[in-house]
Amino acid sequence: MKTITFTCETITPMFLSGADGSTPELRPPSIKGALRFWWRAMNGHLSLEELKKQESEIFGGTEPAQRSRVIVTCPKDKNFLKPSVKDKFPEHRKNYPLSRNTPVNILNYLAYGAYDYRNGFTHGFFDEKQKFDICLKFIIDEEKINEVVKAFILMCYIGGLGSKSRNGFGKIKIISAIETKSESNIDITKKLPKWKDLLKNTNSKSKFTSLSNSELLFSAKEVTKGNYDEALKVIGDAYIFARKNMQDGHTYDVRRYIASPINQDRNAFLERHSKSYFLFLDEELEGFRGYILFLPYLYVSDINNDSLKKGKSVPQDAIQNYNNATEKFNQKLQEKLNLVTL
């Protein structure tokens, strides 16, 4: 059995909770769930049947014989995470078009759900710059181990852990990776692939969020010196700017194609569809550079009745509407950010 112990550090606050949904807790099941997500994202080229088969062989399935071949643990003696005692985020307020001229704290906006404008934080969280260990034990061949390690890297830097991870929270950096095999320890940190190299992909879009030849990566124009909040403010500003410029604040027929449903959109025809955008940071030159990754998928095509709200039907031009909406959104992002060549 091979074990890889990753020593990690939080880059941004992490809303990762226990069973009650609010008390901060580093939970192996949550980490494993995120690992499965990014493993699927790397394998969007597989048929649904083959995807489920391979996923069950690695992470376990519903059948009694389908036990997980990847065991995730968080050693208590190496877990130094302590719940935050902060009652607010740093202030980064700004007015946006179509927002009734009300200054918006960008960090509060990005954390909405875990943060309530009236009552403050609704979830406990872990602060940035906290270290902890995650151990992965493998009972699979070397090729599959490499796949899971790559998924782990994408999970840390792009995906993150916990609530609001697509909005820049719960991001992690890997400080070291120690491989244990046959009672010998090997430092493999420098051998780990870079997250940007893992994005290069020639596959076509799939029916779920996955890497493809249609993905786009946007980056902040400059490295931001200082704490995480300054860098998150830059990409948060770009994201809010693009979203607010889609259409006026009380019309949702275009914005529904960025994420669905919108609570106020009574004409929404889709059940929950996650947005195709991931906000994240990477440490660089004694500061942080912010990124937004666009991972398009077949958002409205070939969907079944389970994806629809009861009594609703898909507009005939929904596919073109999705393409138009994301194209406009990406154009607005480019007014604030650089488009990176992968």
What attributes does this structure have?
5-stranded antiparallel β-sheet, Alpha-Beta Plaits, 25% helix, alpha+beta, 342 residues
Q: What would you say about this model in short?
A:
The chain has helices at residues 28-42, 48-59, 106-110, 142-159, 228-244, 318-336; strands at 2-10, 70-73, 93-94, 104-105, 115-116, 120-121, 131-138, 172-181, 184-187, 216-219, 224-225, 277-284, 287-294, 338-340. The chain is an alpha+beta fold and 342 residues long.
Kindly report the average pLDDT value. Answer: 88
Shape: globular
Spatial order of the strands forming the largest sheet: 2-7-1-8-9
Structural class determined from secondary elements: alpha+beta
Tally of helical runs: 6
Order of helices and strands: EHHEEEHEEEHEEEEHEEHE
Describe this structure in words.
There is one protein chain. With 342 residues, this protein is an alpha+beta fold. The chain contains six helices and 14 strands. It has a five-stranded antiparallel sheet with strand order 2-7-1-8-9, covered by helices on one side. The longest helix is centred in the C-terminal third of the chain and has 19 residues, at 318-336.
Record the SSE blueprint.
Blueprint (H helix, E strand, L loop, with lengths): L1 E9 L17 H15 L5 H12 L10 E4 L19 E2 L9 E2 H5 L4 E2 L3 E2 L9 E8 L3 H18 L12 E10 L2 E4 L28 E4 L4 E2 L2 H17 L32 E8 L2 E8 L23 H19 L1 E3 L2
Antiparallel strand pairs: 1-7, 1-8, 2-7, 3-4, 5-6, 8-9, 10-13, 10-14, 11-13, 12-13
